Write the structure tokens for this entry.
Amino acid sequence: MRIAGLYARARPVFSFEFFPPKTDPATEDLLATVGDLREALSPDFVSVTYGAGGSTRARTIECTTRIHSELGVTVMAHLACLGHTADEIGGIVRRLLDNGITNILALRGDPPRDAPPPPADGLRNATDLISYLAGNFDVGIGAACYPEVHPEAASADDDLRWAAKKAELGAGFLITQLFFDNRDYFRFVERARAAGIVAPIVPGIMPVTNVSQIERFTKMCGARIPETLGERLNRHREDPAAVMATGIEHAITQCRGLIEGGAPGLHFYTLNKSFATRSIMAAIRRL
């Protein structure tokens, strides 16, 4: 099943993102978490991330394969091209296809610390990867976009041009980086449509469960925490239960507003945990 086709349905598409664990026991825990969410929430698909420079390549392939074969859930493998040659990317894609994985989120990826220069014949950015995948494989392709502008972009307009190029080259849908103010999402969608992007633009949602963690994430990706939310989180910084409750409450309000505003679905960055996602989904499915 091509994931892009799911967004043609009349109802919102719900999906969950996981990262590949580093150990065998942690992998079993992850499969249990995915199974738990499958039984409770019936996600339309899940995705598994890919470490910088291919550092989690084997685990990504293993997790996507087992989720597909053992749990029967539609799954999308993230694939980052930075540091890989086209031949290496081709080998990874063929392994995924052999294992029944036909959907890929095409990313540039972040360079690992102290990484060597990229190979001369390597794929250097997400548009290179999308073009290569579309020209050589029968796969569904998704890509990333940035409502608050990629931190390396020269400008908002330049960043939007890259998003448009991804769609033009073959990305059937775009998933946003995390954000906490719905106005950023809807403004981006409006600008994207004006620029000719017709692909579904799916909000990426990360429920706040830890203040230091979310501050670190937002600093890395250029997202901002709205002042009111930041003040509430800081008041409870040393109270994990209160932080969790605050994060879930904000995410429920945010998700309701997105769905009511016409978003095609929601993609949850779960951080391999199910409680926050389950609580949010239980609330928004009562709409």
Observations:
- The chain is about 50% helix and 15% strand.
- The mean pLDDT is 93.
